Amino acid sequence: DAGVIQSPRHEVTEMGQEVTLRCKPISGHNSLFWYRQTMMRGLELLIYFNNNVPIDDSGMPEDRFSAKMPNASFSTLKIQPSEPRDSAVYFCASSLAEGGYEQYFGPGTRLTVT
Amino acid sequence: ILNVEQSPQSLHVQEGDSTNFTCSFPSSNFYALHWYRWETAKSPEALFVMTLNGDEKKKGRISATLNTKEGYSYLYIKGSQPEDSATYLCASYQSGGSYIPTFGRGTSLIVHP
Fold first, then answer.
1. Distance from first CA to last CA of chain A, Å, rounded?
2. Could you give the residue ranges of the DSSP H alpha helices within chain A?
3. A25 interfacial to chain B (CB closer than 8 Å)
4. Given a cut of 70, is residue B9 above it in pLDDT?
């Protein structure tokens, strides 16, 4: 298996633009997690899905952020409109199931909003 | 919001030294603890998944212990090598409701040759 795949790897955009980050989990994994990593706050969980259903989105910073998982092999994290403070590395991770199974992280998307 | 604390924040050791660091987590409603190794410019990779009080896990020169009653886990590295240089993260899961991992800020280890 290729592991968790994220695209793009780098994104530079201007403030106000819409940004869409993509993730393909490991085949057969039922749980998917979106994280944001910043120097100030470390690794923060934004949202997680189990069997394509959002289970907890309490980490999503505000209404500008939304996430979807239309099927078991694809998820998106959208920011609209983007702001400079959204600049961070966004990681997607998947695990076999919810309940404390080890997570497999993708390579991350480095987002810069100017 | 749960408090998962890791100490020290950073650590410099010489090649061959043995070292250890700590992860503290809420002991109430404990479900699982993970350790991850995160090399610069890469993504975190799981080292250990620990669930039972008194658990000890080992992978090569790296081992970990778990005390769920007092809420701490130790990670040990025996005979550190430069390739052990990385940030070591722990993540705590509590039971009740959804299984949300809370990550610590990590311990940054640099092993000097």
1. 36
2. none
3. no
4. yes
